[in-house]
Amino acid sequence: MHYFLDFETDIAHTLYMMRNNEREPMNTNAVKKEILAKLLATEDITVVQKNVETASFNLESRTLTLPTWKTMDSDTIDHLTGHEVGHALYTPELEWKKAVENKTEGYRSYLNIVEDARIEKLIQRRYPGLRAPFIRSYNNMLDEGFFGKSRQSINAYDLIDRLNVYFKCGASTEVSFSKEEEFWVNELEEIETFDAAVKLATLLYNKAKEDEDAADDEDCIIGDPKSEGDEETDGSSEYGESGEFEDGESDEDLEDAINKLKNEINEAWAAGDEEAEMAAKDELDDLLNDEVYSDEYGDDGGDDWSSDPKAKTDGALKDSISEKYAEDDGKVRNYYKTDIRPIEKFIKSYKEVLEETKSFSFTGDSVDVGPELLKKFRANNKPTINYLVKEFEMKKQASEYARTTTSKTGVIDPIKMNSYRYSDDIFKKISVIPEGKNHGLLMYLDFSGSMAENMAATIDQTLNLVMFCRQINIPFRVYSFTTLGRDIRFPVESVTANTEDCLVYASNLHIMELFNEKMTRMDFIKMSEALLVVGQYWNERFNRNNSYGAIRVEYLSANFHLGGTPLNDTIMFAMKAFKKFKAENRLDIVNTVFLTDGSSNSIGYYRAEDCMVTSRPSIRTKSFLIDRDTKKTYDIGVTGYGDTNALLTMYRDNTQSNLIGFRILSSNKISVRRETMNYLPGWEEFEDFWKHMNKNKFSSIPNSGYSEWFGVRGGKALNTANTSIQVADDAKKGAIRNAFKKANSNRKASRVMLSKFIDLVA
């Protein structure tokens, strides 16, 4: 009972969290089934839900496939999920296929009933708390006619069907058995192994065949008065001597029809016509499942179609469950994982990047303007950075003091001995200061073409943050990301290392490591100078409408050119970079920052079945993302934002990182409204956002996969500022103090990224 209560509590907690934190886009039924299945399986397996008839479990990938179901009550969810997990745990896939190979539909129904009884007994034995939901759910189905007959008419069924109802619904159904039949009840109760289930199902099936044949023989002996003298009773009423149907359709004609439909399916698949393909498949299924054809011409080992007893309740129950609960929205469900290829091929180390900067050239006397730009930057920013470092240290000390506790020791303090007559406080004390968390910073900068206008200001903001981290000894890595050149994923380029459906990196993904906490002081200076040069180059190009006339930077190497925005690809890259960075620096908390000015490029969806890469799945496809490590599933959705939000949420869950996003917006209100429409649909929401952003240089954007996502005004508003202190000559101390506070506040506010980072780690 404890197991059941535990997983019910876990599920309830998860659903509560979902209602109060809109991080999980999948419906609550799907989430509950996934959690329940994992708990029942006693391991962190991958759970997928597809349009399949029954559950299956892949032993190699440890993937449990469940049927998709509509909304249902709690008992039904627990019952159906428990049943399917029982099959996954206890029904051996290969042995099952071998057992039903070349067998009739009737035999399969018998074996399915016996196997159901066995696996449900085992899963309920393992989790006793499932017994009640199983009984309640099955009895509700019995009352609703899922077994083909009403509760009162069940005893009119044959032995196998009464056994099915008895073992599923319990003894309260008052199913009756003769003394002879009680033998089979006892036998079914005793079976433990799949081999025993096969043997018992075979015995029951053969007994039913013998009983049916005996009844047929008795009918032949007695005769049918109505058929006497009837010329159509010579066996040709349904079949002729040649084995043909009445309408003249021979087995040759049937084979031709089957081959024709198979050709239609292949042609439709090749043409990409899903509707035609599905229609041809349905027609073929109907033909193969036709009662007369499947028994006479199917792969049943040549058994006589007329002597194939079937369990009526098995088919009726399946059809009823499918009709009422099976989700049939016409959409295929695809599950994707992330690219397994090494990330090294897409990244340049900071040492390689520094080598690239040596090829920069300048106008005029060809003197590097980098040192000049860095000198100017330091003069403008260093005093503010130093002030913020001191402020941070004060906050840190205050936090330590607040966490400090005092404990008495067992050692007497000699100084306090003289007070023993009137005080018990004569022992030495120690102060216990809990260690704070070790923080680190990972930052990813968008180097797309649209960033040209804001590149100089973005680099200024980044350098403020990096210099702050260096001064307080916080480990950090800063990367740029873009695409350079043509993406040659179409057709597939070296993605076949992935053996599963997955999201794949763009072949032209370009990531540069700009800063690293292990850089020497000289390397840090050189990189800072180079990036300031890059910022000036693109800023002046943008403002001069691509005119090179006044630009002092004449040439940048191709690696510093601006391209696309492969944000989705970079998030996948970041998950791998995160683990290495955290382990190397033994960090407790890693703060991850993504800065972009737009939405992500489309990411590649790789299908292992046909080795094809597409930009997005078909509109008729429901797509989900599976985390390789946590096995959690994320709904990608149908919009271009869905894959980004799914990847971001997966990143947070996988890394437990503070995930901060900065979205550089336009400088005018109309453009900002257009850029935030998907996240701030209401005018009132937008007006509040706009007012806050104008006042504070940034404002929070809801409905994303980030821990926090901020919109930041671009253009001049993104520049770092050093507001001077302005007071009257005769100002009093209070006025001077307020002016000083205001100036410092403005300086901090203008350094948006640094300000938010300090709030996180202080």
Characterization of the model:
By secondary structure, the chain is an alpha/beta fold. It folds into two domains: 2-221 and 311-330, no CATH class; 359-396 and 439-761, 3-Layer(aba) Sandwich (Rossmann fold), CATH 3.40.50.410. The strands form five sheets. Strands 5-12-10-9-14-19-21-20 form an eight-stranded mixed β-sheet, with helices on both faces. Strands 16-15-11-4-17-18 form a six-stranded mixed β-sheet, with helices on one face. α2 (28-41) runs parallel beside α3 and α16 (455-471) packs parallel to α23 (752-761).
**According to CATH, what is the class of the largest domain?**
Alpha Beta
First-residue to last-residue Cα separation: 46 Å
Which stretches are low in confidence, meaning pLDDT under 50 for 5 or more residues running?
1-26, 224-249, 291-306, 545-549
- Characterize the main sheet: 8 strands, mixed
Total E-strand runs: 21
Number of domains: 2
**What is the overall number of helices?**
23
Architecture of the largest domain, according to CATH? 3-Layer(aba) Sandwich
For the residues shown, what is the average pLDDT?
A: 76
CATH fold assignment of the largest domain:
Rossmann fold
Shape: elongated
Strand content: 5-15%
- CATH homologous superfamily assignment of the largest domain: von Willebrand factor, type A domain
Q: Approximately how much helix is present in the residues? A: 40-55%
Radius of gyration: 36 Å
Global structural class: alpha/beta
Strand order, sheet with most strands: 5-12-10-9-14-19-21-20
